[in-house]
Amino acid sequence: MKGFTKKTGVAVLSVATMGALLAGCGTSNGNSTSGSGNSANTTNSTTSTGTGNSGSLEIFSWWTGVASSKALQQFINQYEKQYPGVKVVNAAVAGGAGSNAKAVLSSRMEAGKPPGTFQVHAGNGSLLSWVQAGDMTPLNSLYKQMGWNTKFPQSLLNLVTFNGKIYAVPVDMQRDNVLWYNKKVFAKYNLTPPTTFNQFFTDAQVLKSHGITPLALANHGNWETTILWSDVLLGTVGYTKYDQLMSGKVGWNDPGVTQATNTFLKMMQYTNSDYNSLHWAQADGLVAQGKAAMNVQGDWAQGYFTTTAGLKPNVDFGWAPTPGTQGVFAAVSDVFGLPSKLTGTDKTNAENFLKVLGSSEGQKAFNTLKGTISPRLDANPSDYNAYGQSAMASYKKDKLVLTPTQGGLNPGFTTALQNAMTQLISSQNVSQFVSALQSAAQQNPLS
Amino acid sequence: MRARVFNRTILYVVLVIFAAVFLIPVYLLIITGLKSNSAVGLSHMWAWPNPLGFSGLSQAWQQVAPDMLNSVYLAVSATVVVTILGAINGYALAKWKFRGSNVIYFFILLGMFIPYQSTLIPLIRILDKVGLFDTIPGLALVHIVYGIPMMTLIFRNFFADIPGELIESAQIDGNGYWGVFRHIMLPLSIPGFVVAAIWEFTQVWNDFLFGVAVTDPPNQPVTVAIVNIAGSQHIQWNVLMSSTLLASLPTLIVYLVLGRYFVRGLLAGSVKG
Amino acid sequence: MNQSGQTTASESPVGVNKIRRPRVRVETLWAIFTLIPSIILLGVFVYYFIFWTGYVSFTKWNSFIQDMHFNGFRNYVAIFQSFRFQSDLRNMVFFTVFFMLGCLILGLFLAILVDQKIKAEGFFRSVFLYPMAISAAATGVIWSWLLNPTTGLNLILHAFGIKHVPQWYLSTRILPNVHIASISGGFPLAMIAVLIASIWQWSGFAMALYLAGLRAIPEELKEAARIDGAKAMRLFFSITLPQLRPITTTAVVMLMASSLKVFDLLYAMTGPGANFVTDLPALNMFDTTFQGNEFAQGAAIATVLLILVLIFIIPYLIGTLRKEVSK
Questions:
Q1: Is B222 part of the contact surface with chain A (CB cutoff 8 Å)?
Q2: Which of B130, B134, B213 sits opposite A37 (nearest CB)?
Q3: Which of B157, B205, B273 lies nearest to residue C220, judging by beta carbons?
Q4: Most buried by CB count within 10 Å: which residue of A26, A163, A197, A435?
C-alpha cells in the first residue's frame, strides 16, 4: 500500500494533466490529506476546529428505503440544528443487505478515503476486521463523556468492544430468530406456534395435508436460508454451544451441527419450491395472503406485514421465537464508528454526529420511524408498537447471540458458509457441508 | 433496389412478431410502474393496474430529477470526448499503419476486458490523488478511459472498410492527414459514429458501479438514485420500475435522434466498381 | 463477379508506405502523436491496475488488514479447488459461447429485416435497441418475474396446452452431467433463462452494428452484382457477408467484453442460483472481494478471468488481422 503512491507518481501526474484537459476541470488543489468527502467543495479552509461548526460530514449507510431514509434524516436534522455550519453529505447506498454499500465502503476504506462515519453491524464481522486493521478509533472517552457505559446493556457493548476498547455506537436493535405466522391459518387448524422442532413438524404435516405451504422461504439474496439454518442451529444446540461455535471455541465438526443441519434439511421439505426466485418480502407475502403459514425472518418482516400488507399485529399475524430459541435474542444491531484516518474538523464533526446517534431523543425519533427498537436501556416501550414492545422486553432480559449472516462473524467465514449453503440445499450432502465449515473456520478465524 | 429477400407481407409479420416479443418485458415494466406498491406481486404480475397509480411515477420523478442533469452532463461530455478520441485512434490504426501499430491496437483493445470491480480500490486512490474524487469531471474521466478501447475498435473496423483508392485520390487533391480524415473518413462513417455514440451514451448513462464508488450526492448520476429509491430492505417495485422508465427516456431519445443518421454511405458515388 | 473490395485493399496506403517509402512520413508521426493520450490513460487506468491486481493476487491480503506479504500461488490453488469457481468456469464457457452466437445471429437477422426499406424503420429499430437503454438491474428483476416458472411466461405456454413447462432458472439439471473435478460437467439448463435475458438486452446493439455495416456497403457493389444476375441469396453470401466481416469482428469483441459484465443483470435476476448453476466469475469475484473481504483471492479470480479472455481473444484478433492483410 505504501509503495503505491511513489511508484505511480509520474503516471498520476500525467493523468492529472490529462484529466484536467479532457474533462475541462479547472482546479484541483491536490490536497489529499484532508480525508473528508468533498475535495471539490472544501474551500472553507478556516481551521476553527474547536467548535465543530464548520467543514463537512459524510455519513455512509445503506438506509435508502422510504422508512429508513426518513429515519436517518431524523438524526441528520438533530445534528444540523446543533451544528448549522457543517455541510452534511448523506451518502447512503442501497443494496440487498448492504452489498453495494459494503463494496463501496470497503473500497474507500482500503483506498484510504473513508467517509466521516459509517454504518456497520455489531459483532465480529466487518467491525472487528476494521478494528484489527487499525482503521477505527476507540470511543471509550466519548462513552465516558456521554455516560453511555450504563445506558446500553453490557451484553450489547460486548459486541462492539475489542480488547477493552469500545469502537462503535449502536443505534438500533433487530432480532433474527423470529417465527412469523398467519394467525387466521393457525386458528383455522387449531395450531399453536411451535416451540420445539417436533411440534413444528407435526404442525407442518397438518398444514401440508390442507394444501398450505407450512414454511414460506425466500432465497434470492442467498442469505435467507442461512438465517433459517442458524436459527435451527441455535434451537438445536442451545445458547452455550452456539455461542462457543460462533466464537471459535468449539469446532464445527460438533455433532450438534450435523444434527441441526439434518433438521434444517427436513424443514426445507415443507417450503415453497420456488424459494430461489423469491425476495424475502415475497415470502412474507405468501404468509400474509395465507398461502403459507409460517416464515422465519428477522423482525424487519413486521414492517412488511403492517405497512405493505396492511395486517394487524396479534390479530392477522403473530410471532414467536423460532423453535428451541426461547430466551435467546439473535441480535442484529446497526452501529456507527469513527475511522482512524479522520483528523481535524472532519474528526470533530464525526464525533459530534456520534453524540447525536447515541442520544435518547435521536434514537427515539429514528427507531420509531424505522420500525426497529432503540438499544438504550432507558428507551420507553410505549413509543413503539405491539411488536416493538414485545421485542424490547425480550431484548432486555434475553441473552444476546451473534448471527452469522449479518456482520456477526468473520466475513470470509460468512461468505464460505453461504457458498456451502448453496451447495447443501441442492446436494443435501451434510458431511460435505460440515467439512466446508470446518475448513472455512480454519482459514477465517472466528475470534 | 435492395435485395428483396422476403416477401413483403411475411417480412412485416416477422417484424411485428419480433417487436412484440421484445416489448413484453417493457409492457411488464410499464404496468408495474403504474401500480401502487401493495398491488405489485408475483401472483398478479400480469394484471392491469387497477386503479392506475401515478404515485410511483411521481415519487420516482421527485427523486430522479435532481440527478438527471448530472447524468446528462456526464453522458454527453464523456460520449463526445471518447467518440472523437476513438475516431482519431481508429483512423491512425486503420489507415496509417506503422511498425508496431497492431501492437498498440492490441494494447488499447485489451483494456475493455478488465473486470471493473477489481479496479475500484486503485481507482479511488488515483482520483483522490489528482483531486477528482467525487466530481463529475472525475467520473467522466473514468468513463472516457474505459470507453477508449471499444470506440477505437468500432472506428478502426469501420475505417478499415474504406477503400484505399479514396484516400489516395484525396491526397492527390492536396489533402493531408487531417484533410483525409475530415473529407473522406468522417462523411463515410456517419453510421459508425451513430453506433459508437449509441454504445457510449448507453454505457455511461446506465453505469452504476463507478457512479456509486467515486461520487457522493449531489454529484451522483441518476442510476445511483434509482437503486437508492428502490430501497435496501423494502424494495418498492413500482418506484423502481417507474424510475427505470424515466431514466431510460433520455437514452431512447438519443436512439431516435441518432437513428436518423443510419443512412447509406454519403460518398457512395465515388467508389469505382 | 465484382472484385473491387479485394483489389482496392491491396493498394491501400498501408502497402504504399511500407514498400515504397521507407522514411518516416508526417502522417505516421501524426498517427503516433494522436495515439499518445489514449496510451497514457490506458497505461495507468488499465495496465497499472492489471499489474496491481496481479500483484495483490499473490499476497496474503485476505481481510481488511492489507497484508502484502508474498503468498505464493495459494490464492490460485484455493479458487481452483473451490466448487463455486469450478462451476463458474463451466458456466462461463457456455454462457459466453451461446450469448455471442445468439446476439450475432439475432442481430444480423434483425438488421437485414430492418434494412429492407420498410415502413416505420425508426420504430422497429428503436424497439430492438430499447432493451439496451433499460438498466441491467431492472432488466434482471423483470426477467426473473417473466421466467418465474409458476407466474411468468409459463402461463402463456399453459394456455397453448403445453403441459411440461420449463423450470427456467430454477432448473438444477445439467446436461449431460459428466463428472469433472468436483462439479457436474455439462450445460446447466438454468443458464437458458439468463441467456434469454441477456440476449434480449444486447442483440439490439449487434443489430445496430450490422445495420451501420450494411449501410456502409456501397450500392454499386450490389448493383454490379445484380447486373451479373446474382440471385438475392447469392448476393447476400458473396457480397454482403464478406463486407460485414470487420463488423463481425467488432461485434464479437464487443459481445465478449459485455458477456464478462453481465454482473448487474445476473445479480438482480438469479444470483448464483441453486448449486451455482447460474453463477459467473464476476459474481464470485464480487462476493469474494466485497462480502468476504478476501481481496487477494478476489484479485486471483480477476486475473484468471483476464487470462482466459486473452487466450480466446488474442488468437481471434490475430486471425482477423491476418485476413485483413491478405485480402
A1: no
A2: B134
A3: B273
A4: A197
- Kindly list the domain boundaries of chain B, sorted by start residue: 56-266
> Which cell is B240 given?
423502481
Please list the ranges in chain A whose pLDDT falls under 50: 1-49, 97-98
- Choose the mutation target among B59, B76, B130 for the interface with A, i.e. most A CBs under 10 Å: B130
Under a CB-based contact definition with an 8 Å cutoff, are residues A416 and A444 in contact?
yes
Model pLDDT for residues C285-297, shown as the tens digit of each residue: 989 998 889 999 9
- Give the other-Cβ count within 10 Å of B23's Cβ: 16
Cβ <8 Å between C286 and A103? yes
Cβ–Cβ gap A411/C293 under 8 Å: yes
Q: How confident is the model at residue B8 (pLDDT cuts 50, 70, 90)?
A: confident
- Beta carbons within 8 Å of B126's beta carbon, 6+ residues apart: A8, A12, A15, C44, C45
Pairwise CB contact (< 8 Å): B42 & A64: no
C-alpha cell at B111: 483494456
Q: Distance (Å) from the C-alpha of residue A144 to the closest C-alpha of chain C?
A: 29
Q: Does A378 touch chain C (CB under 8 A)?
A: no
CB contact under 8 A, C302 and B117: yes
Q: CA C44 to CA A84: how far, in whole Å?
A: 41
CATH number listed for the domain at residues C83-326: 1.10.3720.10
In this predicted structure, what is the pLDDT of residue A34?
36
- CB-CB under 8 Å, C48 with B122: yes
What's the Cα-to-Cα distance from B267 to each of A178, B162, C215, rounded to whole Å? Answer: 72, 11, 12
For the cut 60, the answer to whether the pLDDT of residue B159 exceeds it is yes
Q: Which chain C residues in 102-161 lie under 8 Å from chain B, judged by CB atoms?
A: 110, 112-118, 122-139, 141-143, 145-146, 148, 150-153, 155
Residue of B nearest to A95 (CA): B232
Phi-psi region of A211 (alpha: psi -120 to 50; beta: other; left: phi over 0): left
Q: Which CATH superfamily is domain A176-331+402-443 in?
A: Periplasmic binding protein-like II (3.40.190.10)
Classify each residue of A214-226 as buried b or exposed e, where b means 16 or more C-beta atoms within 10 Å of its C-beta: bbbbbbbbbbbbb
Contact C30 B178 (CB under 8 A): yes
CATH number assigned to the domain covering B56-266: 1.10.3720.10
B122 contacts on A by Cβ (under 8 Å): 4, 111
pLDDT the model gives residue B265: 53
Q: Looking at the domain A50-174+333-387, which fold is it? A: D-Maltodextrin-Binding Protein; domain 2 (3.40.190)
User: A25: closest CA among C95, B133, B22?
Assistant: B133
Report the percent of chain B where pLDDT is more than 90. Answer: 47
**C53 pLDDT above the threshold of 60:** yes
Q: Chain A residue with minimal CA distance to C274? A: A422
Q: Which helix (H) or strand (E) holds C186?
A: strand C183-188
The Cα of C82 is separated from the nearest Cα of chain B by a number of Å equal to: 20
**For an interface test with B, which of A7, A58, A104 has the most B Cβ atoms less than 10 Å from its Cβ?**
A104
> What's the pLDDT at C17?
47
How far apart are the C-alpha atoms of A427 and A429, rounded to whole Å?
5
Rounded CA separation C117/A438 (Å): 66
The verdict on a CB contact (< 8 Å) between A18 and C37 is: yes
Report which of B239, B263, B253 is spatially closest to residue B75, judged by C-alpha positions: B253
Question: Which among C62, A12, A41 has a CA at the least distance from the CA of B129?
Answer: A12
B7 pLDDT exceeds 60?
A: yes
Residue B257: HSE in the Cβ half-sphere, 13 Å Cα cutoff: 9
**Residues A236-252 pLDDT 10s:** 999 999 999 999 999 99
Question: Rounded to an integer, what distance in angstroms lies between the CA atom of residue B96 and that of residue B100?
Answer: 11
